Amino acid sequence: MWYHFRCNHGVWLPAGQSVRANKWCKFSRTFSNQKSENRYIREIIYGKKRAITYWEITTDPETMPENSTSFVMTNIQGNLKKTLGDLYGLRTWVEYGFRQCKQELGWTDYRFTNFQHIERWWEIIFCVYTMISLNSPALLALNQSRQIETEGQKTSHIDFSNHQQWNHECGWKNFLNNLRLIVQPLFQVGEPIGKIMPWCN
After folding, report:
1. Quick one: 47 and 127 in the same domain?
2. What is the DSSP string of 126-165?
3. For every one of its 201 residues, what pLDDT tens digit does the chain have, with 9 covering 90 and above?
4. What angle (nearest 5°) sits at the alpha carbon of residue 185, between those of residues 183 and 187?
């Protein structure tokens, strides 16, 4: 686990302990398209070494440009000089996923005041998000081997893509649209959510 923290945050130290920064190390930052660029990383040690460590990652250790320099706190162990830069790069995709939950699925659109009810709403949202993710090409490709039918096994197949409103393009919103078409006949207008999904009661 890692955390990004702002440069105006600080760490409390006992009297007599000091802060030191290790030397910059160059590493190759690999992106999702498999291209790579040079980056620099160094550990900042507050007092004594602890399970939680602090790091600076930048594109230029001389000028430390604000828009490409990050301060990271993590409890991950190991040779982080080679791995933390790429791991931290996943932060963009994590934020992108949460943005989809918030904007498209209504993460913040709950109308409850009881926290237990809010948690149930969030659980529904994440179930939908998981369902969409499991139907993405990347995860479907991983499951192709499991979908091979054994000899003599009978299966029923319905081609939902014949629906006139089916979206044949690739993308998160396209999958959401298609899954809505599949589940919509299962719901009746005005049906209480507790009756549709009894596990939410």
Report:
1. no
2. HHHHHHHHHTSHHHHHHTGGGGPPPTT-------GGGSTT
3. 544 555 556 677 777 888 888 999 999 888 878 888 899 999 988 888 888 888 999 999 999 998 888 888 888 888 888 788 888 877 777 777 777 777 777 877 777 788 888 888 888 888 888 887 777 776 677 666 555 544 445 555 667 777 788 877 777 778 888 887 777 776 655 555 444 444 444
4. 80
Measured CA to CA, the distance from residue 16 to residue 153 in angstroms comes to: 72
The pTM of this model reads 0.53
Same domain, 102 and 80: no
Q: Are residues 164 and 119 in the same domain?
A: yes
Neighbours of 126 (CB within 10 A): 13
Domain assignment of residue 146, yes or no: no
Asked whether 102 and 80 are in contact (CB, 8 A), the reply is no
- Shared domain for 50 and 136, answered yes or no, is no
Domain range for 54? 2-7+17-89
Q: What is the DSSP letter of 49?
A: -
| Spatial CB neighbours of 98, under 8 Å, sequence gap ≥ 6 | 107
Distance (Å, whole) CA 56 – CA 65: 12
Q: Are residues 116 and 72 in the same domain?
A: no
Other C-beta atoms closer than 10 Å to the C-beta of 149 total: 8
